[in-house]
Description:
The chain is α/β, with parallel strands linked by helices and 323 residues long.
Amino acid sequence: MKHVIALDVGGTGMKAALVGADGALLHEARRATGRERGPEAVVETITAFAADLRAYGEERYGESASAAGVAVPGIVDAENGIAVYAANLGWRDVPMRALLSERLRGVPVALGHDVRTGGLAEGRIGAGKGADRFLFVPLGTGIAGAIGINGVIESGAHGYAGEIGHIVVRPGGIPCGCGQRGCLERLASASAVSAAWAAASGDPDADAADCAKAVASGDPRARAVWLDAIGALADGLVTALTLLDPRTLIIGGGLAEAGETLFTPLRAAVAERVTFQKLPLIVPAALGDTAGCLGAGLLAWDLLATDTADPTHATEEATEVSA
């Protein structure tokens, strides 16, 4: 049976699958990333996981995977197959595509950014299906975005498109790791809400999910924290809407799990802020934590569809790097 390898690499865990031509998940697996062992060990874990998936596919379906798609965090040069930088994994300039293709004995490999890859899946087969233009914004440890246009994710001239988390919404505010102050992700990410609610509640172990539950129960302190975050988020989203004019705005990540506790006030806050802009449909993501893996599978099938894969070149590149 014709299939591809899909691999979604996170800071703590990796999700993988064999994906059929119809998009069906034929086999799923998970492993720890093991970042505490260092960047070289993480790369070895990724390539070994991919090789095990190839071997499973050969044994189970009688043929090798046709291609592989891999989503990784940080800064990604998808065109050249380079994992440029990932702070939480400690790597720089890893020729991931070439190393994987070599380990997979010439199987062509597509490399993608984790959020943009998740956005690709949400746009094509998830909450944005049928929308010609959408913006996918996951609210997790940080905040990023994926800009979808006619089924393709826009990566930008340098691979930085969609970094909505670093729109400054509160000038002079909380310092951000990017060097600015008052960035959106420092105020409206799940980690930001967790920190604010831990301080307001006096419970150092409280997190964003606890805050959402307290909001639902009517706690005024939680409501204040929640609405501060939603106000900042709405400011950032309206800036994005003004620039991009998406038809659908897809919100995912940990905060989206709060359901209407998030979406009802968020829709109202965005509506209050728009003037000439057209309001998009604001919806929760549909694919959950499988989006990145499904998107990696789509990258692999897209690679085959373009007929531009050159596994010989990829293997030669890996040989040069490791020499």
